């Protein structure tokens, strides 16, 4: 048999399996083709929609700005509330000091008990004790000198102290008269009223002349010492007679 005949015979005996094998060998991928990276579906999803990244960034920025703005708003609100509270305390203290100064400036020897009851009402225990301890002496002075007084507050200046209390300087007109000077005497005085917090309320803790100011003696109420009693000057002691010789 010739070579051509053998070739034809082999071609006739090639089956489907041989054809598939040959096609598989031809379709086998190379090393380079098999090592190509495959793209993650999520990455491919976001890369195809860049607007989502922009939107997420904008949302984060808006949320951050909103949180910062809320914190600043709370700070400003707290500061405003504190300022309002401080002003309310200042107004309350000023009114309390003014009212108490009026109590201390208006009195009469005709009813000293009413005066002491008034100035001891609602004040601190220490100030109550001060008036109680000096009460008998002061009543005697008022009755002996027949002292009476009226007053009018001109201005108040409350100043907050580091301990939370207030020192209130009160300027006032005071009109006084007594047995020795029945004609009313008008003068301007300065008082210092101390106001502190007692629980949830403000309370007068002390009162006295403002530092550096000096009131006339007749206006110093309460007084600590009664005026010296006036009387005729005693005459010279008579000489003893000489003993007889």
From TrEMBL:
It comes from the Bacteria. Residues 233-245 have a biased composition (Pro residues). One of its GO terms (cellular component) is membrane. It is found in: Membrane. Residues 7-16 have a biased composition (Basic and acidic residues). Keywords: Membrane, Transmembrane, Transmembrane helix. Residues 1-45, 206-245 are annotated as: Disordered. The chain crosses the membrane at residues 52-71. Its main location: membrane. This is Mammalian cell entry protein. It comes from Mycolicibacterium elephantis DSM 44368.
């Amino acid at each position: 048999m010739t070579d051509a005949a053998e070739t034809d015979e082999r071609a006739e005996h090639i089956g489907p399996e041989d054809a598939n094998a040959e096609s598989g060998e031809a379709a086998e991928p190379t090393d380079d083709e098999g090592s190509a990276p495959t793209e993650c579906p999520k990455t491919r999803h976001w890369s195809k929609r860049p607007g989502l990244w922009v939107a997420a960034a904008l949302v984060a920025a808006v949320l951050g700005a909103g949180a910062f703005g809320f914190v600043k708003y709370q700070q400003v609100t707290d500061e405003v509330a504190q300022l309002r509270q401080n002003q309310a305390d200042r107004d309350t203290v000023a009114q309390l000091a003014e009212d108490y100064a009026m109590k201390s400036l208006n009195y009469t020897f005709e009813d000293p008990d009413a005066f002491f009851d008034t100035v001891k009402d609602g004040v601190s225990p220490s100030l109550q004790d001060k008036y109680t301890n000096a009460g008998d002496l002061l009543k005697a002075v008022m009755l002996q000198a027949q002292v009476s007084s009226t007053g009018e507050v001109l201005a108040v200046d409350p100043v907050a102290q580091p301990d939370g209390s207030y020192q209130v300087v009160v300027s006032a007109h005071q009109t006084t008269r007594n047995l020795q000077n029945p004609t009313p005497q008008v003068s301007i005085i300065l008082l210092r009223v101390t106001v502190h917090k007692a629980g949830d309320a403000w309370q007068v803790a002390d009162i006295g002349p403002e530092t550096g100011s000096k009131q006339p003696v007749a206006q110093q109420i309460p007084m600590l010492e009664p005026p010296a009693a006036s009387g005729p000057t005693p005459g010279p002691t008579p000489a003893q007679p000489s003993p007889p010789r």
